[in-house]
Design goal:
The chain is of the alpha+beta class. It contains 3 helices and 10 strands; from the N terminus they run αββαβββββαβββ. Among the domains are: about 70 residues, Hepatocyte Growth Factor, CATH 3.50.4.10; about 70 residues, Hepatocyte Growth Factor (3-Layer(bba) Sandwich), CATH 3.50.4.
Length: about 210
């Protein structure tokens, strides 16, 4: 056997051993990484504060031991803005959540906020659980039909039975209505106490029903 063949064999063996050691020690292997969860949008709270004006009034929601308790009570009742009395340990909802912009003022042992992540009560609270708008009616209506109902859920059901894609609830009157003219998309939500409007599809918001 020639000397060149022997040397070549030795070199090849060294290369093979090196490759084996390289991969055994983890060379050129990318360490898997866990997927990074998207950042959670926070709730924004105005602590030690309340509102200087409650345009459409408030609704008492009952006992609550924390901001989170009060937020949940307001959310479940389909309000956009809430308050927490720390010392008294009770809660209230601001009926017109959108009318809070520029009205947050200091008050000890109180906290206020929106029920939806990322919304700031200093700018107005817009989103409710089923996208109803409190203290509003439909402006620009030329014709409507009354419906028998006494709550958001019952008015939504009654409106669906009429084939409507929207509804209105007269909270003080204890009944509701649907617009028959013009198309609901041509109307404009306008302030009116003791009235609530919404779409029969709870994922949509008036007038875009």
């Amino acid at each position: 056997m020639s000397r060149g063949i022997i040397i070549g064999g030795i070199v090849l063996l060294i290369v093979i051993i090196g490759v084996v050691i390289y991969f055994t020690m983890g060379g050129d292997r990318t360490t898997p990484t866990s997927p990074v969860a998207p950042p959670t949008v926070p709730y924004i709270i105005a602590d030690e504060s309340h509102l200087s004006e409650y345009k459409a009034g408030t609704v008492e929601l009952g006992a609550g031991n924390s901001v989170e308790d009060c937020r949940k009570l307001a959310y479940d009742a389909d309000y956009a803005a809430f308050g927490f009395r720390k010392a008294a340990k009770n809660c209230w909802a601001n009926i017109d959540g959108e009318a809070t912009a520029g009205k947050v003022v200091p008050l000890i042992d109180h906290a206020v906020g929106c029920v939806t992540r990322g919304e700031d009560i200093n700018n107005g609270c817009k989103t409710t659980k089923t996208n109803v708008i409190r203290a509003r009616h439909y402006n620009g209506v030329t014709s409507f039909e009354d419906i028998a109902c006494n709550s958001i859920d019952s008015c939504r059901t009654a409106a669906k039975a009429k084939g409507a894609n929207h509804f209105g609830w007269r909270e003080a009157g204890g009944n509701g209505w649907v617009v028959t003219a013009p198309a609901i998309s041509s109307t404009t939500p306008e302030f009116l106490v003791n009235h609530t409007i919404g779409c029969t599809d709870p994922t949509k918001r008036p007038p875009n029903c």
